[in-house]
Amino acid sequence: MSRNFLGMKHLKKEDVENIVNRAYQYKNNSSLYKNALKDKNIITMFFENSTRTKTSFTLSAKKMSANVIDIDYQKSSMQKGETDFDTITNLDAMHPDAFVIRHFHSGYPAFLSKFTDAAVINAGDGICEHPSQAILDLVTMFEVKKDIENLNVCIVGDIINSRVAKSHIETAKMFNWNLSFYGPKTMLPKQEWIENIKIEKDFESAINDKDFIMLLRIQLERKSGSNLPSLSEYSKFFGINECNIPKDTHIMHPGPVNRGIELSSSVMDNSEYALITKQVENGVFARMAIYDFCLN
Amino acid sequence: MSRNFLGMKHLKKEDVENIVNRAYQYKNNSSLYKNALKDKNIITMFFENSTRTKTSFTLSAKKMSANVIDIDYQKSSMQKGETDFDTITNLDAMHPDAFVIRHFHSGYPAFLSKFTDAAVINAGDGICEHPSQAILDLVTMFEVKKDIENLNVCIVGDIINSRVAKSHIETAKMFNWNLSFYGPKTMLPKQEWIENIKIEKDFESAINDKDFIMLLRIQLERKSGSNLPSLSEYSKFFGINECNIPKDTHIMHPGPVNRGIELSSSVMDNSEYALITKQVENGVFARMAIYDFCLN
Amino acid sequence: MSRNFLGMKHLKKEDVENIVNRAYQYKNNSSLYKNALKDKNIITMFFENSTRTKTSFTLSAKKMSANVIDIDYQKSSMQKGETDFDTITNLDAMHPDAFVIRHFHSGYPAFLSKFTDAAVINAGDGICEHPSQAILDLVTMFEVKKDIENLNVCIVGDIINSRVAKSHIETAKMFNWNLSFYGPKTMLPKQEWIENIKIEKDFESAINDKDFIMLLRIQLERKSGSNLPSLSEYSKFFGINECNIPKDTHIMHPGPVNRGIELSSSVMDNSEYALITKQVENGVFARMAIYDFCLN
Fold first, then answer.
1. Is the model's pTM score more than 0.80?
2. Which one of A68, A124, A247, C116 has the largest count of C-beta atoms within 10 Å of its C-beta?
3. Which domains does chain A have, with CATH numbers?
4. Do A69 and B55 touch (CB under 8 A)?
């Protein structure tokens, strides 16, 4: 029996804890994962550009001895007018064990999961969720704090368009975080869809007494920049640099970082509190643990 | 010694029977194929878009433990003006065990086979043949009828441009089928290249007393549509739907289906006689058996 | 501990000898390399089109049982504006064992090697070096002459833009070759950067008493053709064909050959002295030996 990995919203707290613990074990003992996916066949489909997430899902599957088949949608029969639905049901007929899907439509992996017995793994859907990023963030938080309960976390930036923020709204409920948002008003959610999430009034309160500050990427390629007067203004009021970095607060970012906008190069490359590289490193183990959850 | 798989025209009846039987055995016993291609290196080259065929050939090779190397012709030295011939002879010098090739030129795989010791597997050439589709159709027919001799089969649609139809003209001879064609006159072959193949006069006779009706795709991307007055007219006179579906007749289609044109969604998704998904499923085992024929 | 393979300039003579010998051993005994890279993870990144080199590096890694992950830069986060540097440091955080990189910027692999613990393998950088081509040339020379010391070698063609020529300037120093260049004046280096390399005055002296003549590709895709009055003139004065081919001299070419320009088809396909196909064949073993040098 396989299980889907569609979003933090769909997971139980116990499942998330198990995945995070498993990832941490994998990081410390490679014998636990080698051959764990022998004879499993995993199809990856990325309808949006990706380096980190796609490479991470591919590498982790191969490290576990799975077969990975990537579908290049630009050379697929979708170019002949075949619908996504038919493409998937056809691939499903070949009985892969899992689909790893990134799609520009919110809810697309959940939709597909109704038509396949294979595990569906959400690698990012529209402006909805990016749950494997949430897991790797949790692994990283656990690594530096040895606990993921009751944390003080502020997410800074383009909240509305961020699937990472959406996933962490769920994480915050699960682990009783004190979660707050900070950013330009044009990038903040309207009150109605936030429960128990504070909107920080100014930079000082945003960084005050936080265990982790998560910076979000200004998604220039999606024109989230159009919600901004200017990038230099954003950097001045919402960016972290060597002058305003808070003490004893870890800085996270899902990447790719716009250097000098969300985060200065000097902090990113030199500060021990900048966890960006560690997040990417843990991403491989997080995805392994996700495969283990789905397939074993 | 390796053997080519260039077309039904090039195969003996005995070979085809062995391949079909082998595929059927593989479907029922995975231990027969695991590791069967260990240390074999297979190069795939698709000069036309494909989902089903390419994924199926890739997946089946990996399930048999082969190494698969895909050549993306758009990023190859062909972009520097290297000829196909030189590209192939160069790849041949690396001593792969097989080439799987789809090309828009008819006869291309047969041409290449003269210049390489590797097995050449035709994954579709121009408007000539699509022999692996013919094999998977035979596997599917065997699965539902337990016999592939003396069948009554009608192929409906764009016969002239169909490589599936070309392959089945050979299959029909081999297995003594009563094969007929039906479609708009602009899509039917001239009398001279059909032997023993009846052209059906009307829809009633086309569907009458058939074991299998094979619907062909209107290849909109190849402008086969230009031979039609309109798609709705085609659908009305040549499409299968819940109102005109014949009793006890299996419906096949090589895919991707243009829903509502060759076949209605209600029949495709609900009828037990619609074999489209089963064809795709059997495609994986058919390709495994083809590799086995070529390489073992 | 891993070692880089950045260029002939960076290697000791002893290292080069070991790599060449290893490749030659591999060619004669496949049991030496199977499983030699088990559980190693190799990332390939090609920022320029390639068939031979990319396929060769991929195939050789898979033959040694490594995992290979290819980054398609056109679908990577570089499309979101991420810098090459950040892409690499992020990939580095996933702890691959080696990067195989072709880039249009000279010195790019050496630059990257400063920011990763993984082995960096140069698969061609700008107009600088193409060291794996130099190694496979040496393997091929060793195969036909049983010695790579004190050879008489003339390189003919677009020297200035050739990374193969740059690599062999270093090889010549290492193995005490009598190396000369010949080509149109617009394609020859200025005196200041050649030490001990003769510029041949005419075709007769270029081909006289040589063990090997290496023809270089007119890189039409890089507009090296703009340094030429015409291709037919180039062919007439600098091309090798059945009429002017010297006796007992081996003809090499890194490929892809512009047939009829640098080399006539009749010589390329029929002469036992044309080593082009053998070079490609040896390329697989050369790259295996390079991996072995870097990772074992």
1. yes
2. A124
3. 8-130+283-295 (3.40.50.1370), 131-279 (3.40.50.1370)
4. yes
